[in-house]
Specification:
By secondary structure, this protein is an alpha+beta fold. It has helices at 10-27, 68-81, 91-94, 105-109, 135-139, 156-170, 174-186, 224-227, 233-245, 253-259, 325-339, 355-358; strands spanning 31-38, 41-49, 62-63, 203-205, 212-214, 230-231, 273-275, 280-284, 287-296, 299-306, 311-317, 362-366, 369-375, 381-385, 393-397, 403-405, 414-419, 425-430, 433-435. InterPro entries: AmpC-like, Beta-lactam-related, Beta-lactam/transpept-like, DUF7586.
Length: 459
């Protein structure tokens, strides 16, 4: 089970199919299609339909609604990685004249800018984009409802602003930038702004009778970056692999990992739900998931990823309401992770080890608290607490001989080995904290000094 793209066990596949069959039947969805990705590829797809002989496949397009926001966020982070903007920049710096330019790009990405949830005027999801020809029509007279940066308040107009920001800095339409910078490099040929056959039609199911009403599929105009895209289970599986591992042609791994760092305190979902930079965060039965939900009239969509297990589940349905698609996608992940837990890569020795770095490995003490420093690939280091719930972090080697924290408490902090004039390692300096080879080593410059009488029993 360590080989990529290996098929799931028959019992696992049947459990997955049973889950979507129950969802389609009880949720009264005209059709529902799902997929699971693991270890870098699609390992299972399944579908159900109420029409005999018209079962969708992993290549059938559905509208994915707010899953579009993840694609928009990727475009914005590309601009950041290229140095064209900083996430702390005010919107006004790059897109003047909006009237809400004091909010930052990071706040827009994380829905913490305090903007209204919806555009004013007619229900924008069911009306033509021509009714909103400019940003004033999207923002309205009172676009700001809450203080910026204080809380999570989901905002569709906020992602319209991010789409306009992409257009301003790229000098082309959001759609063109998305196709050139994300869809084509990742091979997402079936993810489009307008539906392309084969695609599902959108339906509303009567709440008290088993009858259907077709839903309109409008071009959303300026609101497109918030929810316009059509996609397939197959394309979303490939996109999930990218969001887990990164792709140097689009975004490096560190940037996609940054997307799933909680940006603000959670909203009404409580501490089991949150939002990063363009992705929703969810803790379900102790499992940390990230991805996004989506809905537009006639369609429901969800993509959840468990990065630790390297498993993603995605579900698409062509109904305005009915099946609990987010719960179904989470269940698909859980079924695979529990029945077929991830097989770790085989241990392999490092091809080489720098003696000066190898010298730093082993036990260190922050005061009396024991830690271990281990050497990883590329001269990277990992600091692990050996007692209690101490702080653990990974570190990336820098050209100047220091290391930068990649996660945990020491994210972004600098670790350096301090040596004596004769080249001996005196201590480690980590964000001003001194780590010594012995608890409160008297030969090291411990701030506050070490009592000259040393360790002794309680008098």
């Amino acid at each position: 089970m360590s080989a990529p793209f290996e098929e799931l066990l028959p019992g696992t596949a049947r459990a997955l199919y049973h889950r979507i069959a129950v969802a389609q039947a009880k949720g009264r969805a005209p059709s529902l299609v799902a997929a699971v990705a693991r270890d870098g590829g699609t390992v299972w797809t399944g579908a159900r339909s109420c029409v005999e002989g018209e079962v969708p496949t992993a290549d059938t397009q559905y509208r994915i609604g707010s899953l579009t926001k993840v694609f928009t966020a990727v475009l914005v982070l590309r601009l950041r990685d290229e140095g064209l903007l900083d996430l702390g920049d005010r919107l006004e710096t790059h897109l003047p004249g909006t009237g809400v330019g004091g909010v930052t790009i990071a706040q827009l990405l994380s829905h913490s800018a305090g903007l209204a949830a919806e555009a004013p005027g007619p229900w924008w999801e069911r009306t033509p984009g021509e009714l909103r020809p400019g940003l004033p029509d999207v923002l309205g007279e009172k676009p700001v409802l809450h203080p910026a940066g204080r809380l999570h308040h989901y905002s569709n107009p906020g992602y319209t602003l991010l789409g306009s920001l992409v257009e301003k800095l790229r000098g082309e339409s959001w759609e063109a930038a998305l196709r050139r910078e994300v869809l084509e490099p990742l091979g997402l040929a079936r993810t489009t702004v307008r539906p392309e056959a084969p695609h599902a039609g959108g339906w509303a199911v009567h709440p008290w009778a088993d009858v259907l009403l077709p839903e309109p599929a409008e071009d959303l105009g300026l609101m497109g970056p918030a929810g316009v895209l059509w996609s397939t289970a197959g394309d979303l599986a490939r996109f999930a692999v990218f969001l887990t591992r990164g792709d140097e042609r689009v975004l490096r791994r560190e940037s996609v990992e940054e997307m799933r760092v909680p940006a603000v305190p959670p909203g009404s979902g409580g501490w089991d739900a949150g939002y990063g930079l363009g992705v929703q965060l969810l803790r379900a039965e102790g499992r940390a998931l990230f991805g996004h939900t989506g809905s537009l009239p006639g369609f429901l969509a969800t993509l959840w990823i468990d990065a630790e297990e390297d498993v993603a589940g995605m579900v698409l349905a062509n109904t305005t309401s009915g099946p609990a698609v987010p719960a179904v996608a989470a269940d698909l992940v859980a079924i695979v992770a529990e029945r077929e837990p991830r097989i770790p890569e085989p241990w392999r020795p490092l091809p080489a080890a720098d003696p000066a770095v190898l010298e730093l490995t082993g036990p260190w003490y922050w005061g009396p608290t024991p830690f271990a420093l281990r050497l990883g690939a590329g001269r990277g280091l990992e600091l692990t607490a050996l007692a209690g719930g101490g702080r653990t972090s990974r570190f990336r080697a820098e050209p100047d001989g220091t290391w930068t924290g990649l996660d945990g408490y020491y994210l972004g902090e600098t670790l350096r080995a301090v040596r004596t004039p004769d080249g001996r390692v005196s201590h480690l300096d980590l964000g001003s904290f001194v780590f010594t080879r012995e608890p409160y080593d008297p030969s090291a410059p411990v701030p506050g000094g070490v009592d000259p009488q040393g360790w002794r029993p309680l008098p």
